[in-house]
Design goal:
Radius of gyration: 14 Å
Number of helices: 2
Structural class: mainly alpha
Order of helices and strands: HH
Length: 57
Protein backbone atom coordinates (compact mmCIF):
# COMPACT_ATOMS: atom_id res chain seq x y z
CA UNK A 1 0.00 0.00 0.00
CA UNK A 2 1.50 3.32 -0.98
CA UNK A 3 1.17 6.56 0.95
CA UNK A 4 -1.62 8.04 -1.15
CA UNK A 5 -3.93 5.07 -0.63
CA UNK A 6 -3.16 5.06 3.11
CA UNK A 7 -4.09 8.73 3.33
CA UNK A 8 -7.25 8.05 1.33
CA UNK A 9 -8.25 5.26 3.68
CA UNK A 10 -7.61 7.50 6.69
CA UNK A 11 -9.77 10.26 5.23
CA UNK A 12 -12.52 7.74 4.49
CA UNK A 13 -12.37 6.42 8.06
CA UNK A 14 -12.57 9.94 9.49
CA UNK A 15 -15.57 10.79 7.30
CA UNK A 16 -17.38 7.61 8.34
CA UNK A 17 -16.65 8.35 12.02
CA UNK A 18 -17.94 11.92 11.68
CA UNK A 19 -21.15 10.66 10.05
CA UNK A 20 -21.65 8.01 12.75
CA UNK A 21 -20.99 10.43 15.61
CA UNK A 22 -23.25 13.11 14.16
CA UNK A 23 -26.16 10.72 13.64
CA UNK A 24 -25.72 9.29 17.15
CA UNK A 25 -25.79 12.82 18.57
CA UNK A 26 -29.01 13.58 16.63
CA UNK A 27 -30.63 10.40 17.98
CA UNK A 28 -29.55 11.30 21.52
CA UNK A 29 -31.05 14.77 21.14
CA UNK A 30 -34.34 13.39 19.83
CA UNK A 31 -34.61 10.97 22.78
CA UNK A 32 -33.73 13.77 25.25
CA UNK A 33 -30.68 11.87 26.46
CA UNK A 34 -28.28 13.93 28.55
CA UNK A 35 -24.74 14.61 27.29
CA UNK A 36 -25.40 13.98 23.62
CA UNK A 37 -21.88 15.27 22.92
CA UNK A 38 -20.58 11.91 24.21
CA UNK A 39 -21.22 10.70 20.65
CA UNK A 40 -17.95 12.33 19.59
CA UNK A 41 -15.74 10.52 22.12
CA UNK A 42 -14.56 7.02 21.17
CA UNK A 43 -15.56 4.29 23.66
CA UNK A 44 -17.71 6.76 25.63
CA UNK A 45 -20.17 6.75 22.73
CA UNK A 46 -20.90 3.11 23.60
CA UNK A 47 -22.15 4.31 26.99
CA UNK A 48 -24.36 6.84 25.18
CA UNK A 49 -25.79 4.10 22.95
CA UNK A 50 -26.71 2.08 26.04
CA UNK A 51 -28.41 5.10 27.60
CA UNK A 52 -30.41 5.66 24.41
CA UNK A 53 -31.39 1.98 24.29
CA UNK A 54 -32.56 2.14 27.90
CA UNK A 55 -34.87 5.08 27.08
CA UNK A 56 -36.28 3.50 23.94
CA UNK A 57 -36.81 0.03 25.43
Amino acid sequence: MDDSSAVGMLILYILIYIYFAYTLMIIANKTNTENSWYAWIPIVNLYLMCKIADKVG
